[in-house]
Amino acid sequence: MRRRAAALPAAVTILAATGAVGACGGPPAVPEAHFMPIPMSDVIPAPLEARPAPGADFHIEPSTVIAAARSAEVRPTADWLAALLRRGTGFPLPVVAPGSRGSGVISLQLGDAGAALGGEGYTLSVSPSEVRIRANAGAGLFHGAQTLRQLLPAAIETTHAAGPWVVEGGTIVDHPRYPWRAAMLDVARHFFSVADVERYVDELALYKVNVLELHLSDDQGWRIAITSWPRLTTVGGSTAVGGGPGGYFTQAQYREIVAYAASRYITIVPEIDMPGHVNAALASYGELSCDGVAPPLYTGIDVGFSSLCVGRPITMRFVDAVIAELAALTPGPYLSIGGDEAQSTPPSEYASFIAEAARAVSSHGKVPVGWAEIAAARLPPDAVAVYWNIDDAGSSARQAAERGLRVVLAPANHCYLDQKYDPSTVLGLTWAGPISVEQSYDWEPTDYAIPAGRIEGVEAPLWSETLTTMSDIEQMAFPRLPGIAEIGWSPPSTHDWARYRVRLAAQAPRWEAMGIDFDRASGVPWPQT
Ligand code: ACM
Q: Which class in CATH covers the domain with range 180-489?
């Protein structure tokens, strides 16, 4: 049997529910580990520079205030931080105007952080009187606030715990190595609710992931309402792997997810996979397949057997209508056309189809994204290719780079969160694995002979053939996701498995306090619970 994380420890549950004293009249027994101070060196992703200053610790007290301007780039992060800290500490923590005097201030300051920090970098200075987060843009302030969160004891994630709330003194200067630090969630093989996706968004934000690709269509399900082709969801969204009821996002729900992610500085990249992986679309509209006959809905887990009928005017009318509606719903710059595993599309037709679909994406004002197979087609120079297929030993990634595309690295044997940790893992697949925690961390984006200037970042896909619940998502993403996020954010000089496994183990109390159902996978010195 696979080891499973214990659920939220009972002591924390008692505290979270009531803040009351324990049954014997004493204070409730919150695990000591949940109040341990966190050294700056434990933050994941590892910051560019962290200089602790012994003796300069900051204490969050009942009188502490949060100082922030009312602007749209500052105030939402101040409110987010205040809500988190109020819940954890039970203190009032009012958000006040900048410049308020007195000790005990957490200030969020925009501007003058230095050009080197870019839009996502920040500095965080901790002294006995102030925690100051400074950044050039809202994204940097938010990432700095996530760092402050990680510097607080894990019990900050519960409700009205007792403290003390000590932040180690010193300074962090931090910015990401790559601009694209993505996760991908497959809501097509099994459907996940808006609440599940938003919970995952919050978990990604903790590790400074800034892109979430939503795999919205596949053979087993079409998950986004398209007004002009309604049967895509009423028929194509009606089932899932294993024959369950499926489901789909209305356009209003999709907009809600996009807005929620944006509030966490995460860009949603919607993916409609084509010309393969389209059985749900063909089952909805038989005229999209070359024999004109709608196949039955599919609930298995094979790949490569379905294709849009390339060259028919109706096919491109369909593609353009879907892309137009999705582009209009999506404020972010990207839209993915998938493009992987089109084994049932003749290669010459594949190239012409991808070129045409990419043109449609561009014509609706978005940047085309696709799995790296799309590099076989002519594409606009701003297109992004996501490398995954380890069977081609990186050649699709190199082809994409040679064609001038930006390349995101998601090598399946390191980044695929759906692969089992070891043969005894209950959930997940094995074709690219198993992938231990060490294996998921043991790689470098520069390993694939791609010019450094072409590397846009990293991505951690989570395919859902075997996953049906939020708990399943968490068991596969945690603990491997933070390592991929670190590879995308942190300088290579910090990459060190022997140290990383200890830093990763130190996240466990936080996940317990957050109720994240992580896998106590082997190779990591997890604390006893
Ligand atoms: C993929 O795993 N087919 C992108």
A: alpha beta
